[in-house]
Write a structure and sequence with these properties.
Blueprint: H1 18-29, E1 37-38, H2 47-61, E2 67-71, H3 72-84, H4 88-99, E3 103-107, H5 109-113, H6 118-133, E4 137-140, E5 149-150, E6 153-154, E7 157-158
Parallel strand pairs: 1-4, 1-7, 2-3, 3-4
Antiparallel strand pairs: 5-6
Helix pairs in contact: 1-2, 3-4
């Protein structure tokens, strides 16, 4: 598949995922405003392709919006690199850049929640809380326990 057609929403195979596909289309068209929105599904069910397709279409539709897409491993590695830097300005810029997003798309909580990633997890939750308070849109392929549910109630749109 050539680079131009890679991660297109049109490449998503609906199958049993038709609800997720139509929610993604509503997000792209601006008619769905669950915040945050979570996409649940088994491994290899197309969550990443769907999120990358949303990212690509939102960037194309509104180039002025700041859309940030993070793969969790890249997020953690970048956070650690900036944390270990001798320049405190680098960590500040990392946090500022992420918190200034109009739309945050974050892929794969399971990696972020596994192992001992306390500092990066803390930074992440501070970031998403600030984005939430500023009513910025957030999209995730799965949801971390404890953040989504409060007394058994959902904190956002869950599929």
């Amino acid at each position: 598949m050539d680079e131009m057609n890679k991660n297109r929403i049109g490449n998503f195979i609906e199958g049993n995922n038709s609800l997720a596909f139509w929610v993604a289309m509503d997000i792209i068209n601006g008619s769905l405003r669950y915040n945050p929105t979570y996409f649940y599904g088994d491994t290899c069910s197309g969550k990443t392709l769907l999120l990358k397709g949303i990212e690509k279409e939102l960037r194309k539709k509104d180039p002025g919006k700041k859309v940030i897409y993070w793969d969790s491993e890249a997020y953690v590695n970048t956070f650690i690199r900036n944390l270990k830097s001798q320049e405190s300005k680098r960590l500040y810029e990392f946090k500022r850049r992420n918190r200034s997003a109009d739309i945050l798309i974050f892929d794969d909580f399971s990696f972020l929640l596994s192992g001992n990633k306390t500092a990066s997890l803390q930074c992440f939750f501070q970031m998403i809380n600030e984005l939430y308070m500023d009513q910025k849109q957030q999209y995730y392929p799965d949801a971390p326990d404890g953040y989504v549910y409060c007394n058994g109630e959902s904190a956002g749109g869950i599929l």
